[in-house]
């Protein structure tokens, strides 16, 4: 527990007087009404005559003078009082820092989740690629009938009926006869003449 000297209380009294006038309280009585105490209490504070004040009195005095919490003890310790607006700004700044810190933490978590998702997708793609390569290799090793069976179950190469084209040289029976006659040295005209000569 801090122990304050008589000089500390006198220095505090001087600061209270300055702040009272700055806030528009022309007399100790005016300030006393705002704090909810008697003018004598304010007089004792301003002159450093007492050191035993209740916590509620000090808190209400800080509020009436526009000082932030714990400003009276800061002054007693040789420090500076904090104005309420300054204290609000400090609190706002702290809240902003906390919000930014939380946002950064969430962003880091989101980034890690995205990286894990991308990594999982890449692994899946690689696995599928290997399966396709394995299937292609197995298919390349199969025979024609096996490939046909793979592509069209129940299909066999023996089921294919090939259409035989007509012979280019022996397309019809008449053409065949003419060629045969030529081979024997005969012709259709000789055959016709022989028939006419027969009885």
UniProtKB/TrEMBL annotation:
Which InterPro entries does the protein's record reference? Answer: Cro/C1-type_HTH (IPR001387), Lambda_DNA-bd_dom_sf (IPR010982)
- Region Disordered, annotated ranges: 164-199
At the top level, the lineage of the source is: Bacteria
Q: Which Pfam families match?
A: HTH_3
**SMART domains (UniProt xref):** HTH_XRE
Acidic residues bias: start-end ranges: 174-199
Record domain HTH cro/C1-type: where: 26-66
Name of the molecule in the record: Helix-turn-helix domain-containing protein
Q: Which organism is it from?
A: Populibacterium corticicola
Taxonomic lineage of the native organism: Bacteria, Bacillati, Actinomycetota, Actinomycetes, Micrococcales
